[in-house]
Amino acid sequence: TLRCVTWALNHLPNFARLHLMSGECLPLRPLCDIAARMNQLAPAGEADLIECRSWPGAAWRINRYNILGESPHNREHWHNLAFRWFRDLQGRLRVPVRSDFAPEDIVFGGQWWSMHRSSLVLMLTQPDLPAFCRKFRWTRCSDEHFFQIRHRATGLAAAGSQRFVQVPDGVASPRYLPLDELQQLHDQGFLFARKVTPEVAQTYWRER
């Protein structure tokens, strides 16, 4: 993600706001309406549409060593089991916790956001960025912490992502949303929803 954002900053000089989305994210209203709503919720120079929430229970992601590294297999059962065993072993062996971030500075959020170019420049062109990146060398689920912690540390304001994502308890990935729920989310004011299958996305827009 960081490489993609850096590429956009270097090669797309005219964009005003960058939207991080996946192929399973669905815009719930026309793009012109989304742009107008974003300008109301997060005017340039005032706020970005990113989720930055405190989560005391997630400190282990930051202060323990994820020696297995980030991997496409992170959500597989045996990979998760091995990670948790190594994490708990560090506690039993009293391995000193990492001190890269103070507990009150640890925030998290979904990795899908919309940020102003000016905010990204502030976050990613400072001379301390390489040292900041190294702090995530052993971090679990770093894509849910890196931009959030950096955003707050830069002193920027967050107005929430305006995206609906729901991860059921005990599951590592968001659930797929049915058609009738998408209409409800539209009526509630959400701008995007995730996850949505291609078939449901096509039906949603065909019926609007």
Which structural traits does this protein have?
single chain, 208 residues, mainly alpha, 3-stranded mixed sheet, two-stranded antiparallel sheet, 39% helix, globular
Q: Secondary-structure element sequence?
A: HEEHEHHEEHHHEHEH
* Structural class by SSE content: mainly alpha
Number of helices: 9
Quote the beta fraction. 5-15%
Average pLDDT figure: 87
Strand order of the largest sheet: 2-7-6
Brief sketch in words of this structure:
This protein is mainly α and 208 residues long.
Notes on the structure:
This protein has 208 residues and is mainly α. The chain has helices spanning 2-11, 31-41, 59-63, 77-92, 117-124, 129-134, 146-153, 179-187, 198-206; strands at residues 17-19, 25-27, 53-54, 107-108, 114-116, 163-165, 192-194. The strands form 3 sheets. A 3-stranded mixed β-sheet has the order 2-7-6, covered by helices on one side. A two-stranded antiparallel ribbon has the order 1-5. The longest helix has 16 residues, at 77-92. The chain is globular, with a radius of gyration of 18 Å. It starts with a helix and ends with a helix.
Helix-strand layout with pairing:
Blueprint: H1 2-11, E1 17-19, E2 25-27, H2 31-41, E3 53-54, H3 59-63, H4 77-92, E4 107-108, E5 114-116, H5 117-124, H6 129-134, H7 146-153, E6 163-165, H8 179-187, E7 192-194, H9 198-206
